[in-house]
Amino acid sequence: MKNLIPNQERALTRAEFRSLADIPPELEWFANITNANTRRAYQNDVKEFVGFVGIEEPTELRQVVRAHVLAWRKDLETRELAASTVRRKLSAISALFDYLCENNAVPDNPVHGVKRPTEDSNEGKTPALGDAQARALLAAPPADTLIGKRDRAILAVLLYHGLRRDEVCKLRIKDRHTREGVPHLTIRGKGDKLRYVALHGQAARMMDEYLIASNAPEDSDAPLFRATKRKSQAALTSDSVYKRIMKYGAETGITTEVRGLSPHSMRTTAATNALTHNADIAMVQEWLGHSDISTTRIYDRRKMRPEDSPTFRVKY
Questions:
Q1: Which helix (H) or strand (E) holds 167?
Q2: What percent of the chain has a predicted confidence (pLDDT) above 70?
Q3: Which residues 6+ apart lie within 8 Å of 313 measured at CB?
């Protein structure tokens, strides 16, 4: 066996090889989740589950049966958690056991066959902004400061393209490019999947104003949106984007007008607006980076627009 690859040097010591070979698949599963937010949420869900069941060692997950999952679901329902939260927690456990099944660590997935709660409606819980509110939010950052120009560009990227916060933070200067003569952005979505989104003219203009003011080099690997203190080259964090959005929401009064306003409202607003203006839902699915079109349908509120309500047809 030693002479099969005679010229290749050993990269690992024998002790390192054995230690890596002994890593249980339960820990491998966590390591393979590339999205930091998903990994954090799933870790919390699994930690909660193993605490409820009384598991002390990862290998004890192999002794879990459907009755354990049913008991946990009952406990979650007793705590009156939202249906979407219960579904996410069950999905986390199911994803873990799917991985264990693939690695022959368990014979089957005990979450399969456990009924998950349904949503109260087909409409998502995240509120969308009206057109006037979206315009007010875009105009909120000052137009004569570097931070203001940056924040205008961030809001434009969110509202005109439906990106996730993490996707905005991952943008690099060179991710702006031309495809078939049309300006595009390269987006790194969940699971590091790439998609290419046409750049809206308004967003391009605000982005230009910011890049000129920041003296950013063209075609650079540097982050597109950066912290401005001390000429930092670090990418703006997801938490910082959240704080900027909520700041302008409060300043414009939109936080009071729109119950549950959040950064995800920008994504909901973009998708709802595109669908309202007759964008093809399959194209919107690809645009948003959804793996399942049923997720995209949550944003389709064309039949639920307030202005179309029968209320306004009633006359006495």
A1: helix 165-170
A2: 84
A3: none
Residue type, 38: T
- CA-CA distance, 313 to 81, in Å (whole number)? 38
User: pLDDT value at position 21?
Assistant: 42
**C-alpha 15, offset from chain centre:** 39
The answer to whether the beta carbons of residues 272 and 128 sit under 8 Å apart is yes
For 123, the 3-state DSSP assignment is: coil
Catalytic positions are 164, 190, 264, 267, 290, 299
- Mean of the pLDDT values across residues 82-111? 84
Task: Render the burial of 71-88: b for 16+ CB within 10 Å, e for the rest.
Answer: ebbeebeeeeeeeeebbe
pLDDT score of 22? 46
Does 16 score more than 80 pLDDT?
no
Q: How confident is the model at residue 23 (pLDDT cuts 50, 70, 90)?
A: very low
Within 13 Å, how many C-alpha atoms sit on residue 240's CB side?
A: 15
Distance of alpha carbon 220 from alpha carbon 205, whole angstroms: 19
Tokens of 89: 């927690």
> Is the confidence at residue 120, as pLDDT, over 70?
no
Give backbone dihedrals phi and psi of 206, rounded to 5 degrees, phi first. Answer: -70, -35
- For 14-141, where are the alpha helices, taking DSSP H only? 14-21, 25-31, 36-53, 66-78, 83-102, 131-139
pTM value is 0.66
Q: Are 99 and 123 in contact (CB under 8 A)?
A: no
